[in-house]
Structure formats: structure tokens, C-alpha cells
């Protein structure tokens, strides 16, 4: 190289300083890679640390889109190995994807007569057994044959929609369902019919409580939690329901932020367990809360502390996560990272939110849908995400950005609009609510700005802003009125 082509000492030093700056963080993925190269960390420790590295999480960017559904995508779920993604939609189809190459490998009609709300591949089934639930109240199982033909049959039912099913950890046969009829059922694919465990009843009076979610404790499958149309997440011990009369509602503990106790109009939309039995609960038009085991209350309303009780100061408060909006659909939060270092959730503003679990700081905010991000599915082993919402495509996210991505320029405005929407709902003034919803939509669309298309993009987003303002329909049909999709 000629002398004149070489950078001067000061330029070299500046360049090196800029390059080495990320390495100062002991949790940096690059630091962990260096340790692995030197043999200073074990393979298992390396994968866990790198998989949860904040340096990688902040580089999340859109990897691509999966096109194939003809309706809103209500569920996305990885198989146990993480190489297959399964999805269900308002079009009643269930699709298998080789997501890494963005290819559809199998599509079949679920047999449901209404919108599919959840579809999951049973573990240890060679990815040939799929269970699903839907708005028609049915629970179905699909069996994939060697010639890729699929046979489906109904194995259970509820009176009303069935939003969630939960697979027992480590089992290839056992799972649970909950529905709007308040019924919780236990399924074993080796048995001809499900077992009715109990009907969830309201704390205030003896009435059925419509349920939105059910999750099983990964550390002890005897414990599971449900949430529905009131403010309490309920913890149950399966062993108690095998020893008592059927259909008797006997929760072990209740979980609820103190300020929401005995509140009206607030209900649980989604729950999630961490690998250490922490319980994450999301509320409609409220916030997301993280509970530990010692935050449970006795399942007796009379024992619940009042707002003016002196005991409030001694009660351990859950960690709270703010910024998003959860009003128009039934959204569920998830843990993210191999050690559950982060939390993720969709939002009515069309963004994907990622918070640091400890402290609740928002570290990432990505535009994921033209209207609402409904579903977020973390990959079981790597820092990848699959998301879906009112768009008819599925978005894939990987930490492949060249550099850390800061929060969007209009992040504060979007979150302020979300907050104003929650406050307007509390005030229950229709004119204010409509004004805030219009403001929220404008702020969400404002982020669809002139940014370069992500790697692998098919150009779908070009001219997107004009399409949204005019609400015209394109070939993909992703601009249709969201009111035609699944809204509570």
C-alpha cells in the first residue's frame, strides 16, 4: 500500500477505539466469543450467555416474511427443535414452515369451522401430531402421514371460543385447554375423551369466568395458572383436582397487583412462565407484571388487602413493564433469552417491545405490523423471534443488524399515545377515546418511514405509507380493515 493510502496514527487509534468499545461490556456476545476461542468457557455456558447477550438483542432486525395465509395470523409456534414453525389463521388453515429458508413445507385445512386461535406441534411426535383450538369451541388433533396427507378429528369441545392450549412439559400426549365457558380440561391423546377438571368461577359470586390463557409451570407440571375476565391470575395444583369432587374450583393462590384488586373492567389476556417459575401476567389496557412465588395471595377475597391497609407497605410488589398498549386483542407476553433475561410483547401500535427483565427497561422497539402485533414466539434455543398480527404475513426477527439499533425516533410519542389511550379508557369518555385512537394510529403509521428494506424483503413495504393513509387494498390483502380479524 502506498504511504499516502495509509491512515495516520490518530485515525487508526480512533477506529480501533470505536471497534473495541462494545467489548468493554462483560456480557457482550463478542467478549463471550473471544472467551470461547481461548477455551475459557464451556460450550453450554457459551450458548446461554451469547443467546441472552444484550448486544445481540439490540441488533434485532427483520430477517424476512412468510406469505401463505389468507387471513389474520393468530398463532405462531416453533417445534421443540426450533427448525419448524407452525401457524394458524382466520383462514382456518394450518401451515408448516421451514422458516430459515422462508419456505412453506405443508399446508392443510384444520377442520375448524371458525378462526384458528392456536396450533402446536406435540413434542416427541416426529413433528407429525398437531393440536389446535379455535373460535368454534373445538379442540382438534391432526396426524401427518408419510405421504404428507393429514387427517384431523375433534377430540374435545367447549361452549365458546378456545383461545389457549398448554402442553405438559416433556410429554408427547398430555395437554390442557381452557375456554370462554370457564372449563379447564385435561387431554391425553391415548385416551378417547378428555377429563373435565373444573369450571373456573368468579371471586365475586358464583358465576363462570371466561378464560383467556393457561400455562404450566416448567419446573413442576403439577402446577398451572389460568387467567380470564377478571383481575386475578389463579394458580392450581393438579393433584388436588384428582382427589376432590370434579368441577370444583380450588385455586391454591391468586396473583394480582395490589392497585388492581377489586377493580372493574380489568382482566387478564395472557400469561407466561419462566424457567424459574416466575409468572408473567398481561392485562387488557393496563400493563405487564412479573410475579415471583412469594407474591401469591390466599384464594379468599376477604383476605385480600385493601388499598388503605397498612399491610400494603410490606407486600412485595411485582416488576412492571410499560410502554405498550393492549386493548383491542387478546395478547400474551413471553420470556426471551435462554435464561429468560428479557420480556417481549406485541402492542396495538403495531410494535414489538423488548424489555430487560430486571428493572423493566425498554431496550428494543421494532415495527412489526401495520395495525396490531398479536403473537410473539421466541425460538427455543437462539435469539430469534416470530411475530404475527393483523397482517397476513409472519415476520421473522434475528440479531443480524450491522450495529445496535436505537429506539425509534418517535418512540416517546408512540408510548405517550399508548398511555393516553389507557387513561382515556379509565375516564370512559367516548370522544376522548376516539381522539386518542386516531392519534395512536397516526403515531404508529409515522414510524413506517423511509428506511431501507430488510435483507430478503420482497419490496412489499415500498410505498407503504401512502397505502395506509388511503386504506387501499393491495395484492397481498394486508391492508384490509382489522375489524374483520379476531378482536375481543
From TrEMBL:
Domain of life: Eukaryota
Keywords: Repeat, WD repeat
Pfam families: WD40 (PF00400)
Biased composition (Acidic residues): 472-481
SMART domains: WD40
Stretch list, region Disordered: 1-23, 452-488
GO CC terms: Cul4-RING E3 ubiquitin ligase complex; cytoplasm
Residue ranges of WD repeats: 66-98
Name of the featured protein: DDB1-and CUL4-associated factor 8
Organism: Rhynchospora pubera
Amino acid at each position: 500500500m502506498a504511504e499516502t493510502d495509509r491512515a495516520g496514527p490518530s485515525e487508526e487509534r480512533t477506529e480501533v477505539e470505536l471497534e473495541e468499545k462494545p467489548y468493554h461490556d462483560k456480557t457482550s456476545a463478542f467478549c463471550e466469543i473471544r472467551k470461547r476461542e481461548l477455551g475459557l468457557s464451556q460450550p453450554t455456558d457459551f450458548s446461554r450467555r451469547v443467546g441472552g447477550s444484550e448486544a445481540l438483542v439490540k441488533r434485532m432486525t427483520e430477517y424476512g416474511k412468510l406469505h401463505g395465509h389468507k387471513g389474520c395470523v393468530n398463532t405462531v409456534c416453533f417445534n421443540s427443535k426450533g427448525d419448524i414453525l407452525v401457524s394458524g389463521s382466520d383462514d382456518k388453515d394450518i401451515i408448516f414452515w421451514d422458516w430459515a429458508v422462508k419456505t412453506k413445507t405443508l399446508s392443510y385445512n384444520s377442520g375448524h369451522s371458525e378462526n384458528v386461535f392456536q396450533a402446536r406441534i406435540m413434542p416427541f411426535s416426529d413433528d407429525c401430531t398437531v393440536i389446535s383450538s379455535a373460535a368454534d369451541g373445538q379442540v382438534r388433533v391432526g396426524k401427518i402421514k408419510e405421504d404428507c396427507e393429514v387427517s384431523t378429528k375433534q377430540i374435545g369441545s367447549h361452549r365458546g371460543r378456545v383461545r389457549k392450549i398448554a402442553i405438559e412439559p416433556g410429554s408427547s400426549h398430555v395437554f390442557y385447554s381452557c375456554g370462554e365457558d370457564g372449563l379447564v380440561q385435561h387431554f391425553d391423546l391415548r385416551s378417547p375423551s378428555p377429563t373435565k377438571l373444573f369450571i373456573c368461577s368468579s371471586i365475586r359470586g358464583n358465576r363462570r369466568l371466561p378464560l383467556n390463557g393457561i400455562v404450566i409451570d416448567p419446573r413442576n407440571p403439577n402446577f398451572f395458572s389460568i387467567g380470564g375476565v377478571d383481575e386475578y391470575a389463579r394458580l392450581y395444583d393438579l393433584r388436588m383436582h384428582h382427589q376432590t369432587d370434579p368441577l370444583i374450583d380450588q385455586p391454591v393462590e391468586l396473583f394480582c397487583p395490589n392497585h388492581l384488586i377489586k377493580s372493574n373492567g380489568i382482566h387478564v389476556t395472557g400469561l407466561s412462565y419462566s424457567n424459574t417459575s416466575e409468572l408473567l401476567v398481561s392485562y387488557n389496557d393496563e400493563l405487564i407484571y412479573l410475579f415471583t412465588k412469594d407474591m401469591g395471595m390466599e384464594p379468599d377475597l376477604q383476605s385480600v388487602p385493601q388499598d388503605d391497609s397498612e399491610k400494603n407497605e410490606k407486600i412485595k410488589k411485582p416488576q412492571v413493564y410499560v410502554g405498550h398498549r393492549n386493548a383491542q386483542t387478546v395478547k400474551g407476553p413471553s420470556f426471551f433469552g435462554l435464561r429468560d433475561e428479557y420480556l417481549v410483547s406485541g402492542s396495538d401500535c403495531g410494535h414489538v417491545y423488548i424489555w430487560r427483565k430486571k428493572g423493566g427497561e425498554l431496550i428494543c422497539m421494532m415495527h412489526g405490523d401495520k395495525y396490531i402485533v398479536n403473537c410473539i414466539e421466541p425460538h427455543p434455543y437462539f435469539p430469534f423471534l416470530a411475530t404475527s398480527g393483523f397482517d397476513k404475513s409472519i415476520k421473522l426477527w434475528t440479531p443480524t443488524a450491522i450495529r445496535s439499533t436505537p429506539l425509534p425516533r418517535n418512540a416517546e410519542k408512540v408510548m405517550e399515545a399508548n398511555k393516553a389511550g389507557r387513561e382515556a379508557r379509565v375516564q370512559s369518555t367516548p370522544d376522548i377515546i376516539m381522539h386518542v385512537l386516531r392519534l395512536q394510529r397516526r403515531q404508529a403509521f409515522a414510524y413506517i418511514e423511509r428506511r431501507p428494506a430488510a435483507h430478503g424483503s420482497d419490496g412489499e413495504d415500498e410505498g407503504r405509507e401512502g397505502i395506509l393513509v388511503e386504506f387501499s387494498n393491495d395484492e397481498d390483502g394486508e391492508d384490509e380493515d382489522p375489524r374483520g380479524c379476531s378482536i375481543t
